[in-house]
Amino acid sequence: MKGKKVLVLTLAMTLWGGTMIFADSASQAIRVALNGSELSEGGIMSEGKSYLPLRQLASQMQALVLWDDNAKKASIIKPNVHMFLFKTDKSTFGGVEAGKKVTFSVFAQVDTLTTDIHSFRITITDPAGKETLIQQDTMKSSKDNFWFLTDDFKYSFDSAGKYSVRFSIRLAAGDEWSVVSEKNLLAK
C-alpha cells in the first residue's frame, strides 16, 4: 500500500513539474525599452504575441489612455502639442543663464485632440525635480485643436541644469494629470 502511495505521489510531482516547465516556456517575461530607457514594468511574450504595460508605455510616449469599460476597449490618444517659450520682448529662447530671473510666457498649439478633456496645465520642473505651476485652465467647450498663451510668468533659474516645461491634460475632474508634451531648456 505504501508503495502505491509513493508511486502516485512521485507521478503527481513529475506531472506538476513538467506542467510548470511548459507553462514557463509558453510565456516569457520580456524587457521593454522606449527611446533607450527601459520601462520599470516588463512585458510578456506568449505564443508569439507581446503583452505590454499599456499605461506605463503611454505615459512614456506622452499619450493618453482612454478605457471604455462597457466595450472592454483601451484607446491610446496622442495629441500633437507644440510649445514655444517667449521672453517679454517676444523673442523665443531655449536656454538661460543660471542664477537669473526671467519673465516669460508659454505658447501652446494643440491639435489632433480626438477626445474631450476636462482641463490642462503648464508647469516647469527644476533640475532637482521641484514642479511649479505656470498656468492651468478648464476646457469650456469641446475642441480638437486650440492655441493657448500663458500670462507672463517670472521664474528664477537658481541652479545650472535641465529645466522641463510640461503640458499636461486631465481627462476628467478626478483624474491624474498626464504629460503630453515636454520642452527642455538648459541653464548654464
From TrEMBL:
Domain of life assignment: Bacteria
Signal peptide (residue range): 1-23
Taxonomy of the source species: Bacteria, Bacillati, Bacillota, Bacilli, Bacillales
UniProt KW keywords: Signal
Protein name in the entry: Copper amine oxidase
